[in-house]
Specification:
Blueprint: H1 2-21, E1 27-31, H2 38-54, E2 58-62, H3 69-76, E3 84-89, H4 90-99, E4 111-120, E5 122-127, H5 135-144, E6 150-153, H6 159-171, E7 176-179, H7 183-192, E8 197-201, H8 206-211, E9 214-219, E10 248-254, H9 259-273, H10 276-284, E11 287-289, H11 294-314
Parallel strand pairs: 1-2, 1-3, 6-7
Antiparallel strand pairs: 3-10, 4-10, 4-11, 5-8, 5-9
Helix pairs in contact: 1-9, 2-9, 4-11
Length: 320
């Protein structure tokens, strides 16, 4: 018993010493989205606040595409010394484990939750040339042209692809999915007229709305956006939340990362995301901050996986 006590005391002491010397070099942050995406912009702003307190730079390594597998694997397999972390959304840690029999990472055993960061408010957009100005008109248009209307996704079985299927079911029609590596590419395709519609983070379409290249027909969330008071919510329209409307981004690290470093990172991001100025910045990007303890983030992941499992059962998907 005495030996166990001293081992525990020694482990605690080592963890505290390591935390005091950490970070000793720049921190790499894997992100499965391209530069210029909403999450990329948010992270760079957060790092401006956090880096001076850590005394080291935080460097984003953008690895988009592949249903986020590439970035997630790189994070999961990294040395658990606290100098490599990742910011991921629902797809790689909630959906992928339910959809793919063989993944190069184990989301539960190889990744350690640090904190959830924020929720994305989703917008339903159409290109300017689509002759509709409301969700009701879009539904009629889609029903009249099964398989002709298309939408941007992040690939088969991504949360955006689930939203495509969900709308198809609700409207008794078929909507074709066109895959892109990230949000900026989807919006570029929408603005260029290469795709008809998209249901993803509303912030990415703000400049395109102002320029008249796209139309915003609805938004997720519990209330209308202050900047678009005439745009109804999906709940008002009887559609509930799209699968992509539940999307969030959170901070994780390799599973072997120490408790001391995990708590330090958690504290730094909670401090930043709860600052009134940063919260106002997030509001401008049409996102809702939602930070908490590592345990709360773990609970969110498990609950979200149950939700996605119900969708998979509904669509009768099998593992690939």
């Amino acid at each position: 018993m005495q030996r166990i006590f001293f081992l525990a005391l020694f482990s605690l002491f080592c963890g505290q010493v390591f935390a005091q010397s950490w970070p000793s070099k720049p921190i790499r942050v894997y992100l499965p989205q391209p530069p210029g995406s909403g999450v990329d912009i948010i992270l760079r702003k957060a790092f401006e606040e956090i880096q001076p307190r850590l005394g080291q730079t935080m460097v984003i390594e953008n690895r988009p595409g592949g249903n986020s597998v590439v970035a997630t694997e790189a994070c999961a397999k990294a040395a658990p010394d606290g100098h490599t972390i990742c910011v991921l959304n629902t797809d790689p840690i909630v959906s992928n484990p339910l959809l793919y029999a063989k993944l190069p990472y184990d989301a539960d055993r190889e990744l350690r939750p640090i904190t959830n960061l924020y929720y994305i408010l989703t917008g339903v957009f159409v290109k300017a040339a689509v002759p509709v100005n409301s969700i009701k008109e879009l539904q009629a248009y889609a029903a009249a042209k099964p398989g002709v209307l298309n939408t941007g996704t992040f690939g088969p079985r991504s949360s955006l692809d689930m939203s495509r299927l969900y709308l198809g079911d609700q409207w008794n029609t078929t909507i074709t999915g066109i895959p892109y590596p990230g949000g900026p590419q989807v919006f570029n395709a929408l603005a260029a007229g290469d795709i008809d519609m998209a249901a993803l983070g509303a912030y990415g379409g703000l400049s395109l709305i102002k320029s008249g290249k796209v139309k915003l027909l609805a938004v997720s969330g519990s209330r209308r956006l202050a900047m678009f008071p005439n745009v109804p919510t999906l709940n008002e329209l009887g559609l509930g939340d799209l699968p992509s409307g539940h999307s969030w981004w959170g901070l994780l690290g390799p599973a072997g990362m120490s408790e001391a470093v995990t708590q330090r990172l958690n504290a730094e991001f909670l401090h930043t995301f709860r600052e009134p100025k940063f919260a106002a910045f997030l509001a401008e990007l049409i996102t809702e901050p939602n930070v908490g303890t590592p345990e709360q983030f773990g609970t969110l992941i498990r609950a979200d996986r149950e939700r996605v499992a119900r969708l998979i059962k509904q669509y009768k998907w099998t593992m690939e």
